[in-house]
Amino acid sequence: MPNVINVILSGGVGSRLWPLSRKSKPKQFLPIFEGKSLFEMTIERNQLLTNDFIAVGNQEHHQLTKDCFSSYPNSKFTLISEALPRNTAAAIAFPCFDLDPSTILLVTPSDHIIQDQPEYIKAMKQGIALAASGNLVCFGVKPSHPETGYGYVEYEGFDVKSFREKPDVATAASFIEQGNFLWNAGIFCFQAGVYLEELGRYEPEILDRAKEAWAKQKDYVLPIDESLSIPSKSIDYAVMEKSDKIKVVPADFAWSDLGSFDAIWDFQESQESVSKAPYKNLALSTNNKHVEFLGVKDLIVVETDDAILILPRHQSQQVKQVYERLEKENSILLQ
Fold this sequence. Notes:
CATH class of the largest domain: Alpha Beta
Oligomer: single chain
């Protein structure tokens, strides 16, 4: 197998999982999955492919990331800290500047849940093989329902026909019916040199400004002034939706970005941990408090030391609106 490094992106704040997810400790660091965090589960999942890891994340979370690394002493870890995150196109470029151009990067989020490990490894190995041939590879999960919170990839074989943004319910249902659409899993694989070439081809300003910031990094901590000049754009918009070198690997593993309480409900239900009472509800607490529900169904109750959130399950995507309002109020409840 060629030289593979797992680049773990860890810049998100998980606003739709407030009040569990906070700026000081976002969702990828919460040990709510049998005592492990999503970040730790990402490491363990990819140790079957490589023992070399690079994490790119917020400088404020340096110690949290370091603590996750410390649990796996047999692997090599490098931590790149952003003083000012500028989205994924630049975040992925930073490790590429420090690597041999032929090195293959397996770029994964730090906050996704993935089940069926053998299928995951099979798909990643397919992607690594395609990347070794000079392709930019994304991974698509076969959809189980018409989800409106995900982007979609229209495909034929390994070829990408189009990328589609988060659709409405009717459009998502039509994608499922057509049978040639995948959920975009936000996982990528390519050679470092190929990515930088394509980034320079389509977004030369991002490449140039990121390179200037990298030239002034100190101990893998990026400077804030130079970071301010980097255009903020995702890898999807900057490169993947423009390049003619794109391939997609259709995958059969169970996957969720765990971006909402509804997604946590689905995951826990798949683990048979949700109450089997006639009226199903979900309680999440950082205090391990016992919660009883009487005469209600499809409710989610989230409790922390300083906040309680109660919502109908079908409105879990709207939690972000609460987060944004509290952000405008400069609320201490986000810290």
